[in-house]
Amino acid sequence: MSELTENMPKKNPLSLQIDPKRFEPASEDEKAQQDVMHASTSFFRDGMRKLMKNPLAVASIITIVVIILMILIVPKVVPYGYDEIIRVNGSRDKTVTNLAPFQYSEKEQAAIAAGETIFPHIMGTDSLGRDYFVRVVEGAKVSLSVGLFASILVLIIGVIYGSISGYKGGRVDLIMMRIVDIIYSLPDVLIIILLSVVLNQTLDPNNPIVKALGTNMVAIFVVFGLLYWVSMARLVRGEILQIKNNEYILAAQAMGGKSGHIIRTHIIPNCISVIIITTALQIPSAIFTESFLSFMGMGVQAPMPSLGSLANSARQGLQSYPWQLIFPAVLIVLIVLAFNLLGDGLRDAFDPKLRR
Amino acid sequence: MARYIIKRVLLALLSIFIICLITFFTMNAIPGGPFSGEKALSPAVKAALEARYNLDKPLWTQFWLYMRNMLRGNFGISLKTGREISTTLFTCFKVSAKLGGQALIVAIIIGVVLGCIAALYRNKLPDRIIVFLTTLFTAMPSFVFATFLLLVFCIQLKWFPVWDASEKSLLLPVISLAAYPTAYITRLTKTAMLDSLGQDYIRTAKAKGVRQTGVIFKHALRNALIPVITYIGPELAYILTGSLVVENIFTIGGLGQQFVQSINNRDYPMIMATTIFLAVIMVFCNLLSDIAYSIVDPRIKLEA
Amino acid sequence: MVLEQKLENGVEPILKVVDLHTSFSTDKGEVQAVNGLSFNLTPGKTLGIVGESGSGKSVTSYSIMRILEGNGKITGGHVYFNGEDITQYSEKQMAEFRGREISMIFQDPMTSLNPVYTVGNQICEAILLNTKANKEEAKKEAIEMLELVGINDAEKRFKQYPHELSGGMRQRVMIAMALVAKPKILIADEPTTALDVTIQAQILELMMELQKKLNMAIIIVTHDLGVIAQMADEVVVMYGGRICERGTADDIFYRPCHEYTKGLLRSIPNVDNMNEKLIPIEGTPINLLDLPKGCAFCARCTKTMKICMEEVPPELRMPADGHLASCWLNVKEGNYVLDEEVSD
What we know:
The complex is a heterotrimer. Chain A is mainly alpha-helical. Chain A has 16 helices and two strands. Chain A folds into two domains: about 85-130, no CATH class; about 135-355, Orthogonal Bundle (MetI-like fold), CATH 1.10.3720.10. Chain A has a two-stranded antiparallel ribbon with strand order 1-2. The N and C termini of chain B lie close together (about 10 Å). In chain B, helix 10 (about 255-265) packs antiparallel against helix 11. Chain B is mostly helical.
C-alpha cells in the first residue's frame, strides 16, 4: 500500500483553499478556446509553403533561374557568336585559339595597347578560336531545350496513353500495359544510337526540321517519343485507377458526363501533382541522355554546341587545356543537380507518398 | 512462382525478338547495300555476291535467315576487318564483362553498406555526408566523372598511365562506371531500410527479444534488399551503356569501344550484331533480377 | 474494500507503473503521448486499457516494452517488474527481457509478421532467443506451440509464409510466438481490431484459455468496451495520455465516476439503453501537441467548470467501491474519501 500513497496526488484536495467560483460551469467560448485545432490550408498553398521551406529546392530554383537568365542575356551582351571565329579588326589571328580564361591573343593585346576595348574571353577560347563562354552558354541552352522539349513530349504522350489505359480499364488496359511492359524492357540508349545511325543515312538533309536540329537530335526526339513516356504512362494509369474508384467519379458518370469531360475536369486535376513531379524529374534524365550521346559524337550537329559535345571536344586537349572540360562538365552537373533537387523538393512538398 | 517465371521468360523472349526486328529492319532501311560503298563492282559480280549473302531474297526471308544464323552463333562477317563478328564480339565481351561485373559488384556492396549506414544514422553526420555524395553522384554523368578521374589521376597526379590498353588498371574505369549505380543503390537502400524499419514486423521482432543487430540485419535488411534486387537489371543496363563512353575514355578494348568504332566505320553488320548482343544481355539481366526478386520476396508467388 | 485489495488480495503486483511520461519529438514540437500514468498489474489477472485513438494507450504498452519509435522517449517515471526498474535496463538487458518475461502481440497480424520468412522460422527464432532449446528442439517446440494455439496441420503451416495464412491464423501465430518462453505478462495491443467479429471471439477465448494454462497476466489495450467487458479484471480508462478512471470492470461499467467514462458508456449500446438513442461524445480527440492546462477532456465535456480548464484533477478514491477517478466534479460534489479514512 505504500506504493499507492506515492501514486496519490501530493496535494490533499481538502487542504486546498478552493474557491467555489472555480466550480462554476464554464461557458461555451471558454471551452472552445481549449479545443485547439490546426487551421486548414489549401493543398497548393501548403505544398508551396513546404517547398519554400526546403533550402535545397529554393537554391535549385535560384540556380535554374540564373542559368536561364544567362542564356537570355549573355548572347546580347557578349559581342561574339557561338560559331564565330574571332577576328581582330577583320583579320584572322592564329594566336586566338585555346586561350585561357581572361587571356587575350597577341593581336588583341596589340589592339588593346592601341586603345581599343576588347570584350574579355571569360572562359577563354576553343581550338578553332571561338569564344568559349558564349559556346558554353549556347550549349547550356541547347541542353536545357532538349531536356524541356523531351519532357513535354513525354508528358503529352505519357498522360494521354496512361489516362486512356487507366480510364478504360479491363482488356484495353491489359493490352496497353503489356505494350508498356515490352517497351520498358527495350534498351533505350542502344535504340537511340541505332536510330541516329540509320536516320543519318535516310533523312532528307534539306528538310527544314532536320536542317535545324540535325539528324541525331531528330533521332533523340523520336526515341523519347517512342520509349521514354512509359514510366509516366504507368504512373498516370496507377493514379487514375485509384481516383476512378472514388464516389465523385461515379456521380459524374451517373449524371451523364462524357469520358473526355470526366478525365479533364475530375481526373487530371487530381493526378496533376504526380504529373508535374515526374516531368520535373524527366528533364534531368533527358539532359543526361542528350549529353551522353553528344559526348559520343552522336548528339547535336556541329557547329551547334551542347554541353556534352563541348566536353567531348575538350578531351583532345585535356592535358593542356583542362578548363575546356571543366566548364561544360560543371554546368551539366549543376543543371542536373538543380533539376533533381527541385524534383525531389516538389515531390516531398506535394506528394510525399511518391517518395521511394 | 513457376507461372511468374514463365511469364517473365516469355516477355524477355518477346523483347529480344522485337529488338532483333527493329534492329534488322532499321539497318536495312539504310540506302545502298553493303557492297555499294566499295569500289565499283560489275553488275554480275555484285549479283553473285548478293546471292552469296542472300541479299537477293525478300527482306523477311533475309530476317529469318539472319535469326537462324544468329541462334547458331553466326553473326556474319565484319565489313571493316573481314573477320567473324562472333569472334570479335566474344573477345570484347570478356573484357567488358570483367569491367562491368566488377563495377556491378562494387556498386551493390558499397551502395548497400552506405545505404544502411545512412538509414541507421538518419539525420546525423554520416547520413548527411552520404546524402551529399549520393546527390552529387546521381547528377554526374559517367563520362564527366571518368574524364575528371582521367584528368586528376592520370594527367595531374600521374598515378596511372594515360592511354594504356593493358588491363592492369581497371581501377579508374570501374570507379567511374560504378559511381552512379552506387549512389543510386545507396539512396534506394536507405529509403528501403527506413521504410522497413518502420514496419510492424520490426516491432514484433523487438518485442520477441531480437537484439538490435538481429533486427537490422535479419529483419530489416532482408526486406530492404528487395528493391535493390529489382534495380540490378536497370543498373546493368546503365553500366553497359556507360561502358560505351568509359571504355572509350580509358581506351579499353571492350564491347563499348568496339560498338563506337563500328558506328564510326559504318560497319553495319557489326553495329547490328553488337546492338542485338547488348540488348540480349540487358534483357537477360532484367530477367535474372526479376527471378531473383521472386525468390527473395515470397509474396510474389500469389501474383502472376 | 478498496480497489487494490480486491485485485491483489495480498499478492504483490508483478508490474508497477509509476508516473510514466512518454513523448515524441516531431517537426511540430513535442507530442506528449503519456502524461503521468500509474497502475499495478496482479499476476494472473487481466488489465484492460481503454481509450480512443490518440489517448496514449498503445504508447503506454510500447513504453513498458521500450519499443517506441526512434523519436519517442520515456521522459519520466518508472516501470517495476518484480520490483526491478526496467526503465533502467541497458538495451541488451532489455532485449533479453522482452519475449522472456513480457511478450506482446499487435493490432494488425497482416503486417506484424515478417513477410519474407516462414511462420516456422519466425517462431523458432523466438524460441532460440528466449529458451535454451537447440534448433531441432525449437522446431518441435514451435509445432507444439502452433498446436497449442489451435492451428490445425501445424507441420504444414510451419513451412508456410505469413501471406498464405488468414488473419485469424496469423494472430494465432503471433500468440504462439509471444508465448514460447512462457512469459509472466502478455501485452495485447488491440489484438482483435483487425479481425472479423467471429474470429475476434475465438482469439479472445484462446487468450483466456492460455492465460489459465500458463498463469500469466494480460494487459489488453483496446478501444472496444465489449472486449474489455469480456476479458478484464481491472480497467484503466485513458484520455489525452492521462488516466481518467481505474477500477474493477464492474466499478467502471456500473458506477462510472468520470464524465469521459460516462460518455463512453452512453455512446455504445447495452442492455439498458437498447431502445434509446445513443449519445456520441461531441468534438474531436485532443491535440497532443498542446495539451490543455487542466483536464484533457475539458473541451468536450458537457459539464466543464472553470477549474477543469486550469488544473489537472487529482486522482480520488470513490466512496462507493474504492475505485479511482480523476474528475473535478467529484471534488465539487464531495464524492470522495481519503485513503486515511479507508478501513477494511
